[in-house]
Amino acid sequence: MHQGVTPQNTPRHALLTCIVLMLATTMVQGSLATTNTAYNLIDRCAATDDLVFDGQAANASVQWQVDLGPRLPGSEVSASFRETITNDLTALGYEVSQQTHQRYGMNLTNVFAKWSPNGTSTGQLVLSAHYDSRNIADQDDNESNRSLPVPGANDAASGVAILLELSKHIPSMGLNHDVILFFNDGEDQDQQYTLGAEAWAENLTEEEVASTHAFILLDMVGDADLQLHNVSPGNDTLKSRLVELATDLGMVNGTVACDGTGGEDIVQYETLVGVLDDHVHAHDLGIPSIDIMDTSYGEAKPYTFGSYWHTMEDTPDKVSAESLSAVGRLVELGLRTYAFVEFTEDDDAANDVPDETEPLNEAADDGPKGSKTLAAFAAVGLFSILMLILVVEWKGKR
Ligand SMILES: [Zn+2]
């Protein structure tokens, strides 16, 4: 994903990347229609007993990916990565395929691993992470590091590691829909972002779009100091459900988990952050989408995703098995409870609009409903303008 503007950036770049909106909201007030979807009927707490995600195994995968070297598009390392995961996923029963695309002189290769149920499938659920690591550590404090490729432990390897660990368990979940594990390429190269996901989205048929339940993106999800933020754009129903799942698992401050313990302050959906990431392409096609992401990696650093982001400090020691386990269990619980596939019409209509936005660090408005509505309209307008600028700038660069 990208984001993160330093004041010395050119205005053009600033416009393209300025979406660090960093707004606090009274988040997703979750007016979920309580219809009899599988999700609403399932005993989620009982399902938490079934979770088998192994954070240590995911952590080992992060180390393995970093040890391979920079996973730059078109490189031998990239090919080696694909060969290994293709063999592993094929052995697990997945149908693995690749799509190649030329973009900005890069040879991009998206990898898809498809699992299908034995009986009739109700459609497909896409889980995605980018596997390319950034070619330049342009946010590094040390100027001589800025032309080097980042290790990419959190920014790349963490999301992939969770998908690979989940892949071992998906076949035995008894799901009634296809699961596509989409390892996308070219998310984070130079000033070009989300190219693989964009190419994928461009090539989807209307039928494929219609049969896609949701697009779930994992990006920067291994930070040892894990804080998952409310990323915009995204689908409100998915966000509401994610918070519910996180509450069950003890990841929401001030709540009580299924096991009776108090929640940790991990899922912080009161903090809304605008991010241009792979999920925007699916989102733009009307596919319910969510970006599960920690936007604060390391110390806070203005206009960036933290002091380790896009630096040589993005190393495996900054990532933990515990964090990978927390996110892995969250997604696993979502899979097992059909949280990502059952949508009512009301849910679909509830698309991505913050109820209210305010500058970060200001207290949430407890004012009358009318002012909240006005604030919401203002927020929608502001967000729309920013997104429009983004699209214009982005297209202009192609
Ligand atoms: Zn990145």
Summarize the structure.
The protein is an alpha/beta fold and 398 residues long.
How does this structure look, described?
With 398 residues, the chain is α/β, with parallel strands linked by helices. The protein has a single domain (27-354), classed as Aminopeptidase. It is built from 13 helices and twelve strands. The strands form three sheets. It has a six-stranded mixed beta sheet with strand order 2-3-5-4-8-11, with helices on both faces. A four-stranded mixed beta sheet has the order 9-10-1-12, with helices on one face. Strand 9, helix 9 and strand 10 (267-274) form a beta-alpha-beta unit. Helix 1 (11-17) packs across helix 13, helix 4 (55-68) packs across helix 11 (321-336) and helix 9 (236-248) packs across helix 11 (321-336). The longest helix is centred in the last third of the chain and has 28 residues, at 369-396. The radius of gyration is 20 Å and the shape is globular. 50% of the residues are buried. The structure holds zinc ion. Zinc ion binds at residues 1-2, 134, 155, 188, 310.
